Amino acid sequence: MVMITATSILGNIYRDPSLKEKFHQIPGEVVKVSRIESQRVRMRKSSDKGTDIAITLPPGSKLRHGDVVLLSDDKMIIVELEPENVAVVQIKENIHKDDLIEVPVRIGHTIGNLHRPIKLEGNRIYFPIQTEGELDMFRKLFGHMNEHLEIKGSKMVFEPEEGMDVHEH
Questions:
Q1: Predicted local confidence at residue 16, as pLDDT
Q2: 10-27 confidence digits (pLDDT tens)
């Protein structure tokens, strides 16, 4: 079997409707990577159809969910990030105007001190966790603010906000 080498990101099927259409017409192949792997610029993987692919990207590149790494007349290979466990912290509507600054700042400070990347969506903050037990740890860390928060676990493809993908410990 011949190994294919991909040296650049050619687009993204979730940002370019014509690529998405082509992906379903060919049909495309998928290479699954973890979020941590997506930050690497060199890796070797196999697609869901068995294609052996070496991905060698320019320094500073980062793979995103739906990135196209190979495109020819008869083959398209995209990257899919694997879903991971996340904590979802939702600020409840019961928050008093006196707490509008304190609650989000303390949440951000706590998560930041633990060097977790975040994703913001409305009044929800998402960040990766290793185990469900971490949810109890965050409930304790948020302490007196818990009356204003709903904290639960979920599993999703997690992509941090641009500029908020800090290193993790």
A1: 96
A2: 999 999 999 999 999 998
Secondary structure of the chain: what % helix, strand, coil (to 5)?
25, 35, 40
pLDDT at position 1: 65
Q: Given 3.90.1750.20, 1.10.472.90, 3.30.429.10, 2.60.260.20, which CATH number is that of 4-81?
A: 2.60.260.20
Contact predicate 135/129, CB 8 Å: yes
Interatomic CA distance for residues 110 and 103, integer angstroms: 11
Whole-number Å distance between alpha carbons of 87 and 153? 5
pTM of the model: 0.82
Nearest residue to 68 via CA among 47, 37, 40:
47
Alpha-carbon dihedral sign for residues 114, 99, 146, 126? negative
| Architecture of the domain defined by 84-156 | 2-Layer Sandwich (3.30)
Closest CA to 122 of 86, 94, 92: 92
